[in-house]
Fold this protein.
Amino acid sequence: MRAIGIILAVLVLGGCSAAQRKLAEVSGDWTSAWHEDPDGFRIRVPSGWKVQKLGNGQVAVVSGDRKSYIVVAPVVGRLDSCGSLLQGAMSNGWGAFPNATGVSVRPRNRGSALAEFTMHAGQIRAAVLCSAAGPNAAMLFGLAAPAVEFASTRPQLLSLLRSFSYATPTSPSAPSAPAEPPLEQWRDPTESAFSVMKPAGWRAEGGITRVSNLDVRAAFRFTSPDGLSTLWIGDSRLATCMVPGPQTMQVPGTGGYGGWCQYATGTQLAESYVQRGLGSDYGLSAIQITNRRDRTDLSQDADRLPANAGLRGVRNAFGEVDFTATRNGTPVAGRIAANTTFMPSVDPNLLAGSLQRNINGFIAAQGNEAQGARLMARVIASLQWNVQWVMANRGAAQKDANATMNYLRGQAELGQRMFEERMESSGRRAEARGDLLSGTVRMQDSQGNRYQAKAGSNFYYAVEQGLAVESDPNRAVLGTDQWAPLHNGSIDLRPLEVIQ
């Protein structure tokens, strides 16, 4: 009986409508007395009939021959309409109405629905009404009787159903949740950056993680002495990451903890954290997500802050995820609240923007989730930052930012010089190639004056009237000559024959 077994989790006090809670007297001797049950309900019970509690809040009143009976069942946390709820309950087998055949489900007014069917090869006729008691709650009212007696017995069965109402339980209440532990102050052990109130006696871990003066992360967690409950704020692995634009190559393998990442809402981040981080971080097994919610109310409030400061395009997304698991052999449950802040870049095609990620959560023994949520709220509300640390950290970050800018500026200057030198070298090579092709030679004297002349001479000399420098390219070097070859006999070496 999947539908009923999952949904009928707790007894809903006051789940009936006013009309359904209104008692109706039953005429005749068919009803003998009121039954006041210590579990918190009352109903008229005919003589010889018995009250049976079927679990999960289901109550039945059964005749002595067990052929006629009524059933009242509260339904909480329903996600389906009454029609779908009844169809699922009957098709999957409801223990209160076994062997149902010929089931016909018809919608009724105000969101209700009626199921009619027979049992035991048509010998028993039955019907179940589903009445919506709220957005997520409903009541099921069922009756059954022998088919030949159904028409005549139905008025009395309906009278029994109308007499049912919830009351204050008189049985010993369930053990109350353990008292919340007192709080004691805990200070960041790494840099005394902040202080916070933690549950007394709980183990504290974490603090400030300084990757650099420009990247400082706060993350800590508190664990109860029995090892079942944990509160944590932040995760030092979740750094700001870059979201690639449509024209940027995707970079795989980052694991979502740094570098490049895909855009994610708070709900998506929390769900991914449950599936990939909780088991190894907190010793959990058999993890199952039971609920997920987008907190658009918080997202809208957060978006107003940058908008009021003149920042455009900043997008916040908050979300929550509930889960169950097993820790040290004990069932536990918890909640993770996450938020992401997306800041767009100047050119979203190359780089869509940066994504800041934050995550908080708690784990508690099943049944103590409300206490865990209250402790979490008290811890977060008590967080206080050290003003001196904040100012000093801002100063250090500013120095690092200035140093980074100076470094980048120096790198740019070196790159510019290298480019200029390469251009000059390329110019000289081009000039040399041009001189070679045009038969030009370039010279420089001891005073630094540079000259050019026609190539091909053995020596050059300057004539004052025709002195040429590169600043005046219209003037040429005059007076060039070549060494005469010795073998043509044009040089008379005889004067060397006589040396005085």
Summary: Confidence is low (pLDDT under 50) at residues 1-29, 251-258, 465-471, 474-479. The chain has four domains: 2-166, 183-385, 389-438, 439-500. The first helix runs from residue 2 to 7. The radius of gyration is 45 Å.
